[in-house]
User: What shape does this take?
Amino acid sequence: MKIKAVVVGLLLCALMVSGAMCQSGTTVQYTVTVMSGQGSVSPSGGSAALGSAVTFTAIPASGWSFDYWGGDASGSQNPLYLTMDAPKNIQAYFTQSGGGSGGGSTGSLQKPKIGYVPPNWYLSTDDPYSSYLGYGMIEYTDSVDEDFVQIYWGDVPASLIGQESNANALISQATYEAIFAPDDTGSMFVAGQLAGYAEAYESYYDVWETEVVFVKGSTYVDIFAAYDATSDDIQDAIDFIEGIYF
Assistant: This one.
């Protein structure tokens, strides 16, 4: 499931590198997208003077309520005030009044929460349940060297049903989810749950990959981290993963 997100991430990175194309002189452009639910955002897109402040107001449709912001925005403050220091991609999420799906749980599923964000890391993606082949995805990225952690959450795969506390089954699932051939596998605890992990060093890119999977209640969590092979970056990724909770 993560391969698609990695490709998307690379494309976004390429767009960021060429982001100057969206910036002309002292003007920057911003886009606004409603990612889930029914509602609108004012303004719905446009341009603003570099360094100026723009107010975005989420307007839910009847029977819906505003949930949270994503993309280059975060939180649930409405209206939202942003400084236009660069081109912005603003995402808005709405949920049906009286029952939420985007910001907390979907049915019996629980959305993971982030307990620790390392310095220079930022929320780069927060897509709701079923966005990626039936899974939700939260991604944090290191603004300095583009290390990232992607957290997928959704229904328990058939291979783990009834095996949620089986270390060997969890390790096997982590190995299956990994992109590179693992150099090390084992078990650990994340969010108080037994988890399986697979780690690999890719010499061509000089990066580490860590894959961690576990089941919390009815929710399957697949964590995919890619980071530079330096002690600081390794520690940042470990601290981030160990800080995930529900």
Summary: Confidence is low (pLDDT under 50) at residues 2-22, 98-107. The first helix runs from residue 2 to 17. Helices lie at 2-17, 167-177, 231-242.
